[in-house]
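Ligand: 6CS. Inputs:
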Amino acid sequence: MPSVRPRLTLLFAAVLAALAGCSEPQQEKEPEASGSNNGLPDYPVTWRFALEEIEGSVQHLYANELKERIENISDGNIELDIFPYGSLGTSAHLTELTQDGSVHLAFASPGHLADTIPEVGMFTLHYVLSDHNEVNRKLLASNQLLELFSEPYAEHNMKLLGFVPEGWMVWTANKPLRSPEDFDGLKIRTMTAGIASQAYRAYGADPQPTPYSQVYSDLQLQRIDGQANPVFAIEEMGFYEVQSTMTFARPAQFVTSVVSNREWYETLPDDQQRWLDEALTEVARLIYRKQTALNESRLQKITEDSNISLVKLTEEERERFREASLSARDIYVEQTGDRGGEILDTVLGMVTSLKQELTDSSSGNRN
Ligand code: 6CS
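Predicted complex:
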């Protein structure tokens, strides 16, 4: 069981207060022209990167890969200081710290961020992405997807640097969840943005938006009946210890975004911006494979350490959930207007054409 949960609240207050004093977006970027360093930034420069997950997670893995690369590419001129979950604040706090420049880089998951940027709520809808991993990998790595969302992020003073897939959402509860009827009245924990509840509401559940750090104790105290997260998180946050069943319905990928303060990014000296872009591109190439491997090994650990039941839904069972979830898309479009509607249609179109490309190339391979 991780030690992050009870300590979080106290720590958050102290560290937020400490960071408040260092919120200039990039104090290194305006060196004095007549300074001892010929107008160059005083290297090394430290960038703060805040995570929504604890050490050992997908986000931690990503941050370590980025750290290694940025420090290499910049020849040691940039140092990346990583703040795992528990050292700064909840996801909502991290977004505020990014917006005011107290941290330079952060993860911002749509399930929390959508209260600030409603358009990203699209990632909380069910059965929008493909059940083909390769389709999702290409979609999430595409510039077209980044461009679709970059304006909504910029409007909230954030630069969207990339989307990161973290694995399929898996439902845990004290019973199998094979049909929407099984959700009837179920107190399912959701991430904190309002839209994250809507698919579960459509199944008849009683969603309970809750910060990540509180999920374990709420499950243990039976204040909630279930929750949804990728396998690696179910393992490292200990949720499997207090639930009897994992249901694999593949309703959505857990997708997060990597963000920075917009002004900070835009006013970075050219070489620093290039180092960052290069490092991000390199990590984007390997993270899909890494998160898949982590989710696989964590599932093995869960099954070795517990008697939890694993329930895999059939295609027919998944189809019933897909149909039942569609009303949440209407709510998303109502809440996000024309721009959200266009984003949803574009993403659904991209999924269809990427699937087609995949089918064409596999039939081409057979011919
Ligand atoms: O469920 C949550 O709130 C969290 N889950 C993951 C896998 N990452 C961060 C997020 O806050």
